[in-house]
Amino acid sequence: MSYLKLYNPDAENSGGNSEPRILKFETCVHQIRSPFQFDVLSRASVIYKNKNCRHCGAPAVTPVESEDIMLSRGGLPIPGSGTLVGFRCESCSKQWPA
After folding, report:
1. Within a 10 A sphere around the Cβ of 89, how many other Cβ atoms?
2. For residue 96, how many C-alpha atoms fall within 13 Å in the half-sphere facing its CB?
3. What CA–CA distances, in Å, run from 32 to 10, 25, 29, 51?
4. Cα–Cα distance between 1 and 28 in angstroms, integer?
5. pLDDT tens column, 68-90
């Protein structure tokens, strides 16, 4: 079994504590991922419930996301990674919150 060694600049300044420290994945994963307002299933449910316009009934509704969208390695936005703010009808141009 191999071990992953991580560089910690604070360990060098703290007096040379060389004992290995095991970090559990469950306690560190929330620091790695950026927090989302909705999980995937809740987001899909909200989008499905708002698939038709509330004002004119047209099926031409697009989700409106905030500017915190994640980018891929190529610099392109990842669909569905931004915070869902509301919806906009492409037919009558009305908007409503999510």
Report:
1. 21
2. 15
3. 19, 10, 5, 33
4. 22
5. 888 888 989 888 888 889 999 99
Amino acid, single-letter form, for residue 52: N
pLDDT at 37 over 50: no
**Mean pLDDT, range 58-65, rounded to an integer:** 92
pLDDT band of 12, cuts 50, 70, 90 = low
Report the 3 state secondary structure along the chain.
Answer: CCCCCCCCHHHHHCCCCCCCCCCCHHHHHHHHCCCCCCCHHHHHHHHHHCCCCCCCCCCCEEEEECCCCCECCCCCECCCCCCEEEEEECCCCCEEEC
Q: What angle do CA 82, 77, 66 make, to 5 degrees?
A: 30
pTM, two decimal places: 0.56
Q: What are the sequence ranges of the domains in the chain?
A: 38-97
Residue among 62, 48, 70, 64 at smallest CA distance from 91: 62
